[in-house]
Write a structure and sequence with these properties.
The structure holds 2 protein chains of 2 kinds. By secondary structure, chain A is α+β, with helices and mostly antiparallel strands. Chain A has helices at 35-45, 80-83, 107-113, 150-154, 156-160, 167-178, 185-192, 206-210, 217-233; strands at 3-12, 21-30, 65-68, 71-74, 87-91, 98-100, 103-104. In chain A, the strands form 2 sheets. Chain A has a 5-stranded mixed β-sheet. In chain A, strands 6-7 form a two-stranded antiparallel sheet. The longest helix of chain A has 17 residues, at 217-233. Chain B is built from 4 helices and no strands. Classes of the chains: A alpha+beta, B mainly alpha.
């Protein structure tokens, strides 16, 4: 398999540093190397103090979200070879408190996101002991959002308005409205019918572009607006 | 003793600068950035326009001098830039309204390019009119 050397320009910050800076590392990659594997190689062979977060390695856990060459991605499924740049710049997600190097504090994100009260929380899919019900061809996810926070990092409105609920939370609210399963959908939709709710979006739609799970948060926000307009005008269900 | 406990964490929020960081972004983001830029430009124009109109209070000589300036090629170029700003801001606004009403959400990029095509035609017509009429 072909190999080449790629330079990684990695964002660095430790608690107490006066300001963040970038360190450059050279890594040998092949056609299959992911950004996450390259970062793990840096940590293993060159700088053990590099802090990053990961878990599943297959785009399911959402923990390795970061910005690669200025764009929000899951590092575990981002192929270095396909980036085709001599220098790969790796930075943490935006719009979140920085903990260290490539790790941000997801606490504020979850604080807002959980207020959507999604009734179906994905816990265990594809368990080997799970039984597929009669008439159901295969198991599928009930909720696609993997809570990675890429959409919140990419949103230009979140960047300038810390009170904006953000694309992930609004998409979750739309799921509740679509399929309440005992949750108070009217209360949720009243919550987002506000200046900092679904009306704050300026239709950049970058949230939907970076979403690794095809949630389409931008489309959900537009659906919330349409639903609110429909209710305000008292016209039939769309 | 942990020195780190007293240090506040930096918050990677770039504020309004993020509006214009379009590297690697898609067409919706670029439209958002240009919408902000043209919006700010139109506000600036409105202020300048009101200042120019105030020349009327200084009598016909002051106004006639401005009209001569307004017919110069440089001023017509600025008028062309103004027309671009008006057309982009207005027609992108149409896209935002339509998408917000649930029309063309999944086709918002195509909608954007179609409206920009219309903007280009109107801009060409407008610039031609400025130079020839």
């Amino acid at each position: 398999m072909a190999e080449k050397h790629v330079r990684f320009r990695v964002f660095r910050y430790k608690q107490g540093d006066p300001a963040p800076h970038y360190d450059t590392f050279t890594v040998t990659v092949n056609e299959r190397t992911t950004v996450l594997e390259a970062l793990q190689a840096i940590r293993r062979d060159q700088d053990g103090t590099l802090v990053l977060r990961h878990s599943c390695h297959h785009a399911s856990c959402g923990t390795c979200g970061m910005r690669v060459n200025g764009r929000e991605v899951l590092a575990c499924v981002t192929n270095v070879w396909e980036l085709d740049t001599p220098v790969v710049t790796v930075e943490p997600l935006q719009n979140a408190p920085l903990v260290s190097d490539l790790v941000v504090d997801m606490g504020p994100f979850y604080q807002t996101f959980t207020q959507a009260h999604l009734p179906l929380v994905r816990e265990s899919e594809y368990l080997p002991e799970s039984q597929v019900a009669e008439g159901v061809p295969f198991h599928m996810r009930f909720e696609s959002c993997i809570e990675c926070g890429l959409c919140v990092s990419a949103c230009p409105v979140v960047a300038s308005d810390p009170d904006y609920l953000g694309p992930a939370t609004l998409a979750a609210v739309w799921r509740v409205v679509q399929e309440p399963r005992g949750e108070d959908a009217d209360a949720r939709i009243a919550w987002v019918d506000s200046e900092q709710g679904c009306w704050r979006c300026h239709v950049a739609m970058e949230c939907s572009e970076v979403c690794p799970s095809n949630v389409d948060p931008g489309g959900s926000i537009m659906a919330l607006r349409r639903e609110l307009t429909r209710r305000a005008l008292g016209i039939g269900r769309s | 003793m942990s020195q780190q406990m007293s240090v506040s964490r930096p918050f990677l929020r770039r504020g309004w600068r993020a509006w214009f960081q379009v590297r690697g972004r898609h067409v919706g983001y670029i439209a958002f950035a240009l919408n902000r830029l043209t919006g700010l430009g139109l506000v600036l124009y409105l202020i300048l326009h009101l200042m120019v109109l105030s020349l009327l209070t200084r009598g016909p000589n002051a106004w006639d001098a401005f009209v001569r300036l307004a017919k110069s090629p440089l001023f017509l170029l600025l008028d062309g830039i103004l027309l671009f700003g008006i057309l982009f801001h207005g027609l992108n606004g149409v896209r935002v309204v339509l998408v917000s009403m649930g029309i063309g959400v999944r086709r918002h990029k195509e909608l954007f390019w179609a409206l920009m095509g219309l903007a280009a035609l109107l801009l060409l017509g407008g610039v031609w009119g400025m130079w020839h009429v």
